[in-house]
Amino acid sequence: MISENISLKPYNTFGIDVKARFFSAFSKLTELEELLAIYPGTSVFILGGGSNILFTRDVNGLVLKNGIMGIELMHEDGDNVYVKAGAGENWHRFVLHCINNNWAGIENLSLIPGNVGASPMQNIGAYGVELQDVFHCLEAFHIIEKRIITFTSTDCEFGYRESVFKRKYKNQFIILNVILKLRKRPVFHIDYGSVKQELENMGVKELNLRSVSQAIINIRNSKLPDPGLLGNAGSFFKNPFIRKSQASKLKEKFPDIPTYTAHDDLVKIPAGWLIEHCNPVNATQSWKGFRRGDAGCYPKQALVLVNYGKATGAEILQLSDDIARSVRNKFGIVLEREVNIA
Ligand code: EPU
């Protein structure tokens, strides 16, 4: 069924109230094909969990909500299981399902908002693990050519919060399902940030998938807002990479600036720190905790922008531009958005 002029507020975690000219959900490929045939030529916008998108205007086309469900063990060998999940499955529910089955590899990605279909789009990552570490392949439907294409990890061209689906194939494919290669025997990643500390606080003596997942959940809950309670799309910007020489110059001026060695000649700088150490024009207080109307910078994690209720996408975008400008002016570093703008 296709609805007309409906609000997308319940369908994006920022809670932005824009309208879709046409809207429908699909749960099978045949339904998707029928929907695409009804309005040939109409621009199509595919929505997953709506957790990485900032709507700044009404969508004057057909919005299709991907509701393809199902989790299936496809194949196993000595060390691995190959698990297929429908793009419409909620990511965290999928993680819990894997943990319950003792399938290891995505426990560090617990509680990431959004659906399975968006996970390769973004190459989601947290606490030392990225989707590409466990990715096997995916099936996607080409909207124009009307055929299913299988993408391997190489085909996806994964990068830091990047893939071909965000760049050169933007809006061309609809991801139908994802197959992950998970381990029967876990390899734990607990060296990132405060994971070890949290496990200690929890009194964990022996690591298992459930305890690692719970530690991640506790850390996320302590600094990231629950989109069910406060509109947001996680990190709004990516952490920038700069040259080592630029980092040393910055260190002379700002000795406390944190730097993480990356690859080649590059170091990673936490964007949250840069934002926290900048402030709005004519103000002395930091952006962190700043609020203009209902658009704000989250008090516990400066990299997250929030909607306190009725902010428009344009207001949040304006706030993000102001923040990025002040970071560029003070540190000479250009912040790149992680969130997609529509
Ligand atoms: N920091 C500050 N002030 C802040 C926030 C951060 O100084 O307000 C500095 C601190 O030095 C801190 C460092 O930034 O030690 C790193 O902070 P954190 O561990 O919270 O991670 P992040 O780099 O801000 C990234 C991801 C998150 C992911 C966490 C944990 C990006 C853009 N974001 O954030 O992913 O959960 O690491 O792995 O890479 C997301 O993509 O939406 C997301 C939430």
Describe what this molecule looks like in 3D.
The chain has 342 residues and is of the alpha+beta class. It has three domains: 3-66, Uridine Diphospho-n-acetylenolpyruvylglucosamine Reductase, domain 2, CATH 3.30.43.10; 71-223, Uridine Diphospho-n-acetylenolpyruvylglucosamine Reductase, domain 3 (2-Layer Sandwich), CATH 3.30.465.10; 231-341, UDP-N-acetylenolpyruvoylglucosamine reductase, C-terminal domain (Uridine Diphospho-n-acetylenolpyruvylglucosamine Reductase, domain 1), CATH 3.90.78. Helices cover 25% and strands 27% of the residues. Strands 6-7-12-10-11 form a five-stranded antiparallel sheet. Strands 1-2-5-3 form a four-stranded mixed sheet, covered by helices on one side. The chain has a four-stranded antiparallel sheet with strand order 13-19-18-17, with helices on one face. The longest helix has 19 residues, at 313-331. The mean pLDDT is 96. The structure holds uridine-diphosphate-2(N-acetylglucosaminyl) butyric acid (EPU). Residues 126-127, 193, 223, 234-235, 238-239, 258, 270, 272-273, 276, 288, 301-303, 338 line the site of uridine-diphosphate-2(N-acetylglucosaminyl) butyric acid (EPU).
What attributes does this structure have?
342 residues, alpha+beta, Uridine Diphospho-n-acetylenolpyruvylglucosamine Reductase, domain 2, Uridine Diphospho-n-acetylenolpyruvylglucosamine Reductase, domain 3, Uridine Diphospho-n-acetylenolpyruvylglucosamine Reductase, domain 1, 3 domains, 5-stranded antiparallel β-sheet, 4-stranded mixed β-sheet, 9 helices, 27% strand, binds uridine-diphosphate-2(N-acetylglucosaminyl) butyric acid
